[in-house]
Design brief:
Blueprint: E1 11-15, H1 19-29, E2 33-40, E3 45-52, E4 55-62, H2 65-68, E5 83-86, H3 89-98, E6 102-104, E7 115-119, E8 125-130
């Protein structure tokens, strides 16, 4: 499906409490690659960029609680709901299950898993779906 503006997915950013633990989890569990890591704002914010081919997941950790505050009426979301596709969700489910990752399916676990949720070390929800799955 073409987008009239030519938009393509680039990255997603999430705010975390413990960037070291989060980076370690995504590297170990999801096998992402560390692209860049550093500090900004005079050390008040740490960041990490983890990559997949053609996409990245970025994390921010603010070291001062007031940096988490948002000006204006709309709060900044802690995390969006990232969804990743794989060729065989059932096999991916079994691999993650063996690693001890917290997993969930919609209702009781079916004999063959086609989509499922997983939770990172801070409880953020991600989703895995079959390649080509409709939304």
């Amino acid at each position: 499906m073409a987008n009239a503006l030519g938009l393509k997915a680039h990255h997603i950013t999430g705010r975390v409490r413990d960037i070291d633990a989060v980076v370690a989890w995504y590297l170990r569990v999801l096998d992402l690659t560390l692209v860049e890591r550093g500090e900004l704002m005079g050390g008040k914010m740490k960041y990490a960029v983890l990559g997949l081919p053609g996409y990245s997941v970025s994390f921010l950790q603010f070291n001062e609680p007031d940096q988490m505050a948002v000006q204006g009426p709309a709060p900044v979301p802690h995390w969006m709901h990232p969804v990743f596709s794989v060729a065989d969700p059932d096999a991916t489910y079994r691999i993650l299950e063996a690693k001890g990752v917290r997993l969930a399916t919609h209702g009781p676990k079916p004999p063959v898993v086609k989509t499922f949720q997983l939770y990172d070390c801070e409880g953020n929800e991600l989703e895995i779906v079959a390649e080509g799955a409709a939304h």
